[in-house]
Amino acid sequence: MKELVEVIAKSLVDHPEEVVVTESETEKGIVLELKVAADDMGKVIGKQGRVAKSIRTVVKAAASREDKKVIVEIA
After folding, report:
1. CB burial of residue 9 (10 Å; 0-12, 13-18, 19+)
2. What is the pLDDT of residues 24-41, one digit of tens each?
3. What residue spans define the domains of the chain?
4. 3, 37, 38, 50: which could join 18 in a potential S-S bond, CB 3.0 to 4.6 Å?
5. pLDDT of residue 47
6. How many CB atoms lie within 10 A of CB 5?
7. 31 within 8 A of 73, measured Cβ to Cβ
8. CATH class of segment(s) 2-74
């Protein structure tokens, strides 16, 4: 899942070398934290959060195939 978020984010931003995805396990499931450059934040979130919601939807669909719960946080 980490690689999926990384590939999606890198294709959206102007500074792909600054994309960092960290993965941690909690009682709720796997938490993926996405960090991008400050000037790329708008591209990752999108108008009214549409891009961020789409990223979460794709990751959720991929995780459900493996019976896992994944939460994507954008920092």
Report:
1. buried
2. 999 989 999 999 999 999
3. 2-74
4. 37
5. 96
6. 23
7. yes
8. alpha beta
